[in-house]
Amino acid sequence: MSNEYAPAATAPEQTTKPGPWKRNRAVLVIGLVIALLVAAAGTAVALTQSAAQQRKDTLLEVKDQRLNDLAAARDKLQPAVNAYLAAYKKARNAPASKDQAVQDSKKELDDFRQAAEAARTSLQSVKAGLGSSEAVNTAVQQLEESHLGYFDYMEGLVESYPRFEGLFRADDAAGCNGLFVGNKAANLRERQQLLAKAAAPCREAANELKQSGNVAYEDFARTFDKRVADLEKHAETTAKAEESYEEFVRIKDDFVKKLADAEARNAPADEVLKIADDARALNSKIRANRSEFDFAAERYLDGVKGMPDLVDEVFTKNVTEDIKYYEAVIPLRVQLVKDVIDAELVE
Predict the structure, then answer these.
(1) How distant is the alpha carbon of residue 51 from its chain centre?
(2) Which residues have CB under 8 Å from 80's CB, separation 6+?
(3) Do residues 220 and 312 make contact, with C-beta atoms less than 8 angstroms apart?
């Protein structure tokens, strides 16, 4: 009986402590994570160092090789320009038509175009892989601007040369040689008409040079257009003055006849005085007309005489000065890039 109410025996308590394998596995996982983090950090450092070295190598290459390659490519442009201009002009002076001259100078034109393309490619290589350094990029941008200006200038000089060279050739459409009317006209009105006929296509052809991309041609075209417009204005003034003078002479002869008739008739003094006053007024108009004529005629002759110099100075003065400008500016821009790269490499 006593055993019937005895408490039940308590079951032994289960333990939760990990075994040796579980403890080792946790340690192993933590160790692997730490190792991976260390390896990643090392890789990041290595990549950073590699990128820095690569950038340094690129900067050195730009300074020591690419800029020299660019200079070599740039130096080939001017001889190529001179060769083409000489070939084209020689062909035209043979003499040859414009189309024949284009054909005869095709090799020199192709040589120039290839040299220009090579120079532009070399310029682009200078910019490749420079990174984001503000100082270097700014210096290279300035270098690029000066070079592109020079390349555009030379290309415009070559590509628009046939148009410029043919302005005053009689067999070219521009027909600017027609501006020099000379003794072809019987009177000043006919001179004005012949000039106006020649001026229209001439000014149109010259204005096309404003789109050449070459500042020497563009400045010439603007000045030339104004000079031709002035010639037309002065030609009209002199023609009108000549016509007015002929009319004044006719009127003056009428006054002389009226005065002689009045004196023969013993006309009243008031009538005679009026005729004399009218004659004096006419003389004043004649003097003013002559003054206007002389001014316009002098300006017209100066314009005609100055035209050859205006054309010649495009190459003898303006192109020469423009090229000297680029020859002065470009080396400064090149040296600036080198100096900025040196400063970048020291940091």
Answers:
(1) 40
(2) 108, 111, 112, 115, 116
(3) no
**What amino acid is encoded at 53 in this protein?**
Q
Buried b (16+ CB within 10 A) or exposed e, 29-63: eeeeeeeeeeeeeeeeeeeeeeeeeebeebbeebb
Checking if the pLDDT of 121 tops 90, the result is: yes
Sorted by sequence, the CB contacts under 8 Å of residue 27 that are 6+ apart come out as: none
User: What value does the mean pLDDT of the chain take?
Assistant: 86
Phi, psi values for residue 167, rounded to 5°: -55, -45
* Structure tokens that stand for 113 in this block: 């175009």
Structure confidence at residue 175 (pLDDT): 85
Q: Are 126 and 59 in contact (CB under 8 A)?
A: no
Kindly state the tokens that stand for 123.
């310029």
Q: What is the pLDDT of residue 13?
A: 45
Indicate the pTM of the whole model.
0.79
Helix residue ranges, H only, 77-133: 77-92, 98-104, 106-127
Report in angstroms the alpha-carbon separations of 24 from 20, 21, 37, 183, 312. 6, 5, 20, 117, 96
Instruction: Provide mean pLDDT across the span 229-245.
Output: 95
Query: Shortest CA distance to 238 belongs to which of 178, 173, 174, 303?
Result: 303
